[in-house]
Structures are given as C-alpha cells and as structure tokens.
Amino acid sequence: MTVYFIGAGPGAADLITLRGARTLASCRVCLYAGSLVPADLLAECPPDARLVDTADLDLDAITEEFVRAHEEGRDVARLHSGDPSVFSAVAEQMRRLDAAGIAYEVIPGVPAFAAAAAALKRELTVPTVGQTVILTRVAQQATPMPEGEDLATLGRSGALLVLHLAARHIDRVVAELLPHYGPDCPAAVVAMASRPDELVLRGTLDEIAGLTKEAGVVRTAVILVGRTLAAARFRDSHLYDPARDRHVC
User: Where is the Tetrapyrrole methylase domain (predicted)?
Assistant: First the structure.
C-alpha cells in the first residue's frame, strides 16, 4: 500500500488537481482535517472508504491509522489543505512512515498564497518593482521561529511578504514591518480564499490591522505586504519584448 499526501487546495473543492482527485477516488482510507478540508471533496472517496477526521488526533494516533491501513493493504489518501510543501506538518508524518517502512508519495496542490493572489487579481512578482516572495509566519504558541527568521529581519529585504497563521497577531505584524515598509505600503488580507465566504481586505500597512479586526478575521487567512500589490507603472517583462532574440534559450 501507499500513503498519498494530497494537497486539497485552499478551500474550493474544484481546486484539487486532477491527479489528486483521481488518487482520492482510488483510496479506501482517507485521513483529513475536518476543519480545513471541504466536505464536498469527501464525496470523491469510494463508497466503502474509511474516513478519519484528524482534527482531534495527535501524531501518534495518525501514525496508528497509517499502520492499520498498511496491515490491511489499503492505500491512504492523506488530505492536507493548500499544498503539502508549506506549513502542513507532513515532514514529521513522513519521518514516522520512513521508520515504519511504509511507502508514500506527495501530490501537490494549490497553495493558499496563490489563491489569495488570484482573489486580489495581482501578480506577486512585477518587473522592476519586486521579484521576490517570502512565505513565512510569526512565532506564537506553536513552534518558535528559527533565529534570523523574525519579521524584523525578513522585512529588511523589502520583498513581498506572505504571512500564514498570523491574522490573530495582525497588530504585531504591522508594528514589526512598519519601520521597513512604511505606513503607505500596500497590504491585504484574504480570508477563506476561494471559498463561498471569501473575504478580501485591501489597504495600506497603516490601515490593514484596523480593517482586519473590524471584519473579525482571526484565522484561515493570509496577510500580504509589499509594493507589488499596487504596482501600476512598471516596465513590460523581457518575456514578450519584441526586441528579444527568441532563438536564444
């Protein structure tokens, strides 16, 4: 058997990849986070599949489900919201599977920051304005941030910052970024990206905390801060420049 870590996407059930949907439909065990994965996706599982909501399970209990499925010879669809490559806690699960000698594969999904950019109708990298995107979060009750990855340090780059798991700490985010980005820097918060109740908040860095608190946003949101969010006057990219030599790779 194989455990398939599947990126379920940011919320909308139809944003799962074709490969992810096909794999989900073939697995007779599905582990999913009930608070994050849309219920519509579970309808893709086989009628006789064992469905396990992992919202209240710790790592040991999740590992036991993997081992049980392995003993039964049943493939497992392990659904993770967004994409498994960032803030998904798949690394520790993979480590357990390696120790147990259980095979696994990873199927990527649409990450939350991409869904947020789509909701904002913005390209996050704009020629001559910004070509770097930093995905990060803030230290809180969860795992602390490694040394050198605090907002004050990352903010010195001036790159577009995308913060996950930080909406509850919006005041702190703003306070730490203001010295580096300035009060007039464009900022946005996208909550429930791609879902029917999606909420998009736009403003300046000086305004965004008030807008976020007024809207009552505390979770399932992405914070974006950077000049590319409002870039209008910028040079066209070299990609489609008529002067470009298209015979040179």
Answer: 2-209
